[in-house]
Design goal:
Radius of gyration: 21 Å
Number of helices: 6
Order of helices and strands: EHEEEHEEEEEEHEHEHEEEEEEEH
Low-confidence stretches: none
Largest sheet: 7 strands, mixed
CATH superfamily of the largest domain: FAD/NAD(P)-binding domain
Shape: elongated
Mean pLDDT: 95
Helix content: 10-25%
Number of strands: 19
Structural class: alpha/beta
CATH class of the largest domain: Alpha Beta
Length: about 300
């Protein structure tokens, strides 16, 4: 099937790009390997998206965005893009179960959580090791859990978990949080959160499920263990760009490099949202990127037609 533009990724950037492309009467396909929404759909409450003074549930906001994109004719395709190649000025997507052809592409595949890379992490993933508190928090009701990280995501999810669990250990390798001040204040005021500073996780212990963590003091190297039923890891993100790196230029972190019009190093391929090199990664900036990329695609296709 051939399209004017194919959007790869169904988070806020991809969904907004679809909305704008559809309104521009471009034949548009949005390819997503799972349910639309991306990382935003796993966030319990989004408080900083304009227009919702009381905040809005992440899944609800993403569902509304998807419905709006469908209203303007965007075709949603559930598959995984494995490779992209360019032939005769068009882009051919090799997917798990099909091939798709687009005159232009918008890469909006976002980023996914980084792993700690310690023993026990992969072995116990889904059995106490998680990267999404809103997805898995209910499994740990009235139990003890740990959250690793010091940024907004770590603190937000630690606060969410206090509604469900008995205790949250927030483990950070430094002696101060990176999260915004308002989140820090909420966390420090919450009696269920205990902070463990200047500490890293050396190993995740357990046979069939998480039972404890082996911690290491970042200054002295001293090790000790604490008993927990689960661990939630928030130490950063890595961009989903493996399928496009052979074609488009990325920085040392793997993020796509774009110009002011969000075009990558390959004419006709644009990037939007967390997948591209940028300073702020929020739902609102992803949505803005999606709008900009779609408008840029429309102009690119018009200019290409006139040549």
């Amino acid at each position: 099937m051939s399209y004017d533009v194919i959007i790869i990724g169904g988070g806020p950037a991809g969904l907004t790009a679809g909305l704008y492309a559809g309104r521009a009467n471009l034949k548009t396909a949005l390819v997503e390997r799972g349910m639309p929404g991306g990382q935003a759909a796993t966030t319990e409450m989004i408080e900083n998206y304009p227009g919702f003074p009381e905040g809005i549930m992440g899944p609800e906001l993403m569902m509304r965005m998807a419905d709006q994109a469908r209203r303007f004719g965007v075709e949603f395709v559930t598959t995984n893009v494995e490779r992209v190649r360019e032939e005769d000025g068009r882009f051919i997507l090799s997917c798990t179960d099909r091939e798709m052809v687009g005159r232009a592409l918008i890469i909006a595949t976002g980023a996914e959580p980084k792993e700690l890379g310690v023993k026990g992490e992969r072995e116990l993933r889904g059995r106490g090791v998680s990267y999404c508190a809103t997805c898995d928090g209910a499994f740990f009701r009235d139990k003890k859990v740990a959250v690793v990280g010091g940024g907004d995501a770590a603190v937000e999810e630690a606060l969410f978990l206090t509604k469900l669990v008995d205790k949250v250990y927030l483990i950070h390798r430094r002696d101060a949080l990176r999260a915004t001040k308002v989140l820090q204040e909420r966390a420090f005021a919450n009696p269920k959160i205990e902070f463990i500073w200047n500490t890293t996780v050396a190993e995740i212990l357990g046979t069939d499920k998480v039972e404890a963590l082996l911690l290491q003091d970042a200054k002295t190297g001293e090790k000790r263990s604490i008993a927990v039923d689960g661990i939630f890891i928030y130490i950063g993100m890595k961009p989903n760009t493996e399928f496009i790196r052979e074609l488009a230029r990325v920085d040392e972190g793997g993020y796509l490099i774009t110009d002011d019009n969000l075009m990558t190093s390959i004419p006709g391929i644009f990037a939007a949202g967390d997948v591209r090199q940028k300073k702020l990664r929020q739902v609102i900036t992803a949505a803005a990127d999606g709008a900009m990329a779609a408008v840029a695609v429309e102009k690119y296709l018009e200019e290409k037609k006139m040549r």
